[in-house]
Specification:
The chain is mainly α. The protein is built from eight helices and no strands. Helix 2 runs antiparallel to helix 6.
């Protein structure tokens, strides 16, 4: 196994997760991650150590931005079944409630503007620090904190409007 594989392979799921939320569909997310890995391999000699996850997510984000610029249409379809949880509720009523809540949450996250959605995904789903998010997105840390605060507020408002508890 090469040094690149040892350093970056553990972060493949995180790379895909970010790409999935940014592109809003599975095939495009796979393309973005594949291209990001190719770019990462090509420029790995420039990796100076540190947080490999943040470095890779920076490449994924930049690859997405390039990909998005090449697209003619931004009307992508969100696949409801892609991020279904593995845990099964104990009864059908619980399953229906959980499914409804998860669907509402996904819809609300998906409705966020890109800059809020990517910040929220990196912090809440990928558990990156504010500093790592600032590095990935090339933003001041205060902007990251502001975007995250606004994203959380919009998410809360959306869930409230959908009748879900926050």
């Amino acid at each position: 196994m090469t040094l690149f594989e040892k350093t970056m392979l553990p972060h493949l799921d995180s790379a895909y997760n970010l790409a999935r939320w940014l592109t809003r569909n599975d095939p495009d997310a796979q393309d973005v991650v594949q291209e990001a890995y190719v770019r990462g391999l090509r420029y790995f000699d420039g990796f100076t150590g540190g947080d490999g996850k943040a470095w890779l997510l920076t490449i994924v984000r930049n690859t997405f931005l390039t990909w998005r610029g090449q697209q003619k249409s931004n009307s992508l379809v969100f696949d409801e079944h892609l991020h279904s949880p593995n845990a099964r509720p104990s009864n059908p009523e619980e399953a229906a409630i959980r499914s409804s809540s998860l669907r509402a949450l996904r819809e609300c996250i998906d409705a966020l503007p890109l800059e809020y959605r990517e910040t929220l995904v990196m912090r809440e789903l990928e558990e990156l620090s504010y500093q790592n998010i600032a590095d990935v997105a090339s933003l001041p840390i205060g902007t990251v904190m502001s975007r995250l605060s606004r994203a959380r507020k919009r998410l809360e408002d959306c869930m409230t409007a959908k009748g879900e508890k926050s």
